[in-house]
Design brief:
This protein is mostly helical. Helix content is 75%, strand content 0%. It has helices at residues 2-11, 16-23, 27-35, 42-50, 55-60, 72-89, 94-104, 111-163, 169-182, 186-199. The radius of gyration is 29 Å and the shape is elongated.
Length: 204
């Protein structure tokens, strides 16, 4: 599907960004569609169809003027089959997903049928999108925590050097947490180190 989408974009003389804007998507989504790494939504296909794209060809490989339309009865049968597959497996195989997308974009069908098909596609994509979003959030959080930890360790290291006294690793860990969690400044850490050094003169 991705190669045919790119073919249609080039036929329409559109850049990826231009077609993405028409379809209401980000340009990186357009790139994923064309590489076949993500299935376009029915809403996106409907928008680019309105701009002149042959969506039936994109989805099925058959041009819109080839008489390859689908009857309302066939459409409902396909949608029902897709809904059953979603209910039993939680996903759609590629063939039935392509058919449901084609139904969602077929303007010869009644709006309720197309809307139902679009809902099936959105439901089928929900877990993948949610998982990807969760992974991105977790990765971003890990990155942020690591950056905060590195910064906190650097603040404590500078304070230790300025104070001229090195406490135990356990105390260093507590000081790092003070900086990371409560944003305690280096000058305050240095004063704490001086106080601690005074309490432990044999380690000064």
């Amino acid at each position: 599907m991705g190669a045919r989408l790119k073919e249609e974009r080039l036929r329409l003389e559109k850049t990826q960004r231009q077609l993405a804007d028409i379809g209401g998507q980000a340009v990186n989504s357009q790139s994923l569609y064309e590489r076949g790494e993500r299935a376009p939504t029915g809403a996106y296909l409907a928008e680019i169809a309105a701009a002149g794209a042959d969506v039936l060809y994109i989805v099925t490989g058959k041009h819109a003027d080839s008489g390859a339309g689908i009857s309302p009865g066939q459409a409902l049968e396909t949608i029902t089959s897709a809904e059953s597959e979603l209910e039993s497996t939680g996903a759609l195989n590629g063939d039935i997903a392509d058919k449901v997308i084609a139904i969602a974009c077929d303007d010869t069908l009644d709006d309720p049928i197309r809307a139902r098909a679009d809902l099936v596609i959105r439901f089928a994509m929900r877990d993948t999108d949610a998982d990807k979003a969760a992974e991105l959030r977790q990765a971003e959080r890990r990155k942020r925590v690591q950056a905060e930890m590195d910064w906190s360790k650097a603040v404590v290291a500078d304070a230790i050097q300025a104070a001229g006294w090195t406490p135990s690793p356990q105390v260093v860990g507590h000081l790092v947490n003070l900086v990371r969690l409560y944003k305690v400044e280096g000058d305050v850490i240095m004063l704490l180190l001086h106080d601690l050094a005074a309490l432990v003169p044999d380690q000064a």
